[in-house]
Design brief:
elongated, disordered C terminus, mainly alpha, about 325 residues
C-alpha cells in the first residue's frame, strides 16, 4: 500500500508566506498616505518656487513684488483670493484682460507661457490667501497723509491751512466738533455736499476712498496728531509717476502738496506746472516736472531726440556727407 503524502510542511510555508504578504500589504497601505502627502508637498513646493520666479520676472513690475499692486490691481488681497477660483485666475492670466494693459500670457493666446507655467503662477498667487490683507477694508479706513495731500489741493481754499477755517467755511480742525459725528456722516457730507451751508457736492469729483482719506485726516486732527507729508522729492516722483499713467488728478494732487514744502525757486516751477495742467499743456507740464527734478538733484531720464524741433533728422557726420569737397 502506497504511503499517503504529507503536505503539512507546504501548507505551513504557504500560510507563513500569505501572512507575510498580508503584513507587507498592510504596511504598504499604512505608509502610502504619508508617501503621497510627501510627494504632493514636494510638487507643491516646486510649483510655488517656479511660480515665484515667473511672477518676479514678469508680473511684479505691475502687480508689486508682494502682490500689493503698483500700476495694476493688488493680487495679494483676501477678498479677491477668497472670491476667485483657481480656474478664473488661470483664465485671466492666459487670455489677459481686454481694454487694459494686462496681456495674454498663455501660448494658446500668443503669450510666452505653457499651461504648466500658468498653473505654477496660479499656485504661487494662491499661497498668499492665508495671510492676505483685506485691502478694501484698509482703504476704507483711510490714509491721513493722502487725505492731507488732497485737502491741500482741494479744500484749503475754503477751510484754510490745517483746517483753521476762513470767512467762507468753518474750521474743521476742532476736536470737540469732530466728535459730534461719525465717519459715515463726514463721508456723506463730503460726497453729497451741504448746499444749504454752501458746501458743494464733491461726489462728482472725488471717489469714496478719497473721501475716506479726508475723514482719516480729520480723525488724526481730532486726536491731536501732526500729519507729516512726504518731502518734495517724493511728491515730484509721485507726480511724474501719475503723469506716466495719464492720471492728471494725481499729478495735480502731488504737485499741490509739493508746493507746500517748496522753496521759492521750486514753487515757481510747480506753479508753472499747475498752470500747464489747467491749460491742458502736457509738453509744458513735462518740461516743468523735469526742471523740478533737476533743481532737486533727482535722477532724470535722458531725452532721446532724433531730430530738431521741426522734426528733421540730425545732420549726418562729415564722413557720410556726399556733398562735401571729397564727394563732388
Amino acid at each position: 500500500m502506497r504511503q499517503k503524502e504529507n503536505y503539512s510542511r507546504f501548507v505551513a510555508v504557504a500560510l507563513v508566506l500569505t501572512v507575510a504578504v498580508l503584513a507587507s500589504f498592510q504596511a504598504y497601505i499604512f505608509r502610502e498616505p504619508g508617501r503621497i502627502a510627501a510627494d504632493e508637498e514636494r510638487d507643491l513646493s516646486f510649483a510655488v518656487s517656479e511660480g515665484e520666479l515667473l511672477y518676479s520676472e514678469n508680473c511684479a513690475m505691475c502687480h508689486g513684488q508682494d502682490g500689493e499692486g503698483v500700476d495694476a490691481p493688488a493680487l495679494n488681497d483676501k477678498r479677491l483670493l477668497s472670491r476667485t477660483a483657481d480656474e478664473t485666475i488661470f483664465s485671466l492670466i492666459s487670455s489677459g484682460v481686454p481694454s487694459t494693459e494686462m496681456p495674454a500670457w498663455n501660448q494658446l493666446h500668443g503669450g510666452p507661457f505653457t499651461d504648466d507655467q500658468v498653473r505654477q503662477l496660479v499656485i504661487f498667487i494662491r499661497q498668499w490667501e492665508k495671510d492676505a490683507p483685506d485691502r478694501l477694508a484698509e482703504a476704507m479706513a483711510g490714509d491721513p497723509v493722502d487725505g492731507l495731500i488732497l485737502y491741500n489741493s482741494t479744500c484749503i481754499v475754503c477751510h484754510g491751512p490745517e483746517g483753521v477755517g476762513t470767512d467762507v467755511a468753518p474750521a474743521l480742525n476742532d476736536p470737540e466738533n469732530l466728535g459730534f459725528f461719525d465717519d459715515d456722516w463726514y463721508v456723506d457730507a463730503i460726497l453729497d455736499g451741504r448746499p444749504a451751508q454752501g458746501m458743494p457736492t464733491w461726489g462728482t469729483v472725488l471717489s469714496p476712498i478719497q473721501a475716506r482719506n479726508l475723514v482719516a485726516m480729520l480723525r488724526a486732527w481730532e486726536r491731536g496728531e501732526t500729519i507729516e507729508l512726504p518731502n518734495a522729492e517724493e511728491l515730484i516722483a509721485d507726480a511724474l509717476h501719475a503723469l506716466d499713467h495719464g492720471d492728471m488728478h494725481g499729478v495735480e494732487d502731488a504737485l499741490s502738496a509739493a508746493a507746500a514744502a517748496a522753496d521759492h525757486d521750486l514753487a515757481e516751477i510747480i506753479d508753472e506746472a499747475l498752470e500747464a495742467i489747467e491749460a491742458n499743456d502736457v509738453p509744458t507740464l513735462e518740461s516743468a516736472i523735469r526742471d523740478a527734478q533737476i533743481l532737486l538733484g533727482m535722477e532724470v531720464e535722458e531725452e532721446h531726440d532724433d531730430g530738431d524741433e521741426h522734426g528733421e533728422p540730425p545732420p549726418a557726420d562729415a564722413e557720410h556727407d556726399d556733398g562735401d569737397e571729397h564727394g563732388g
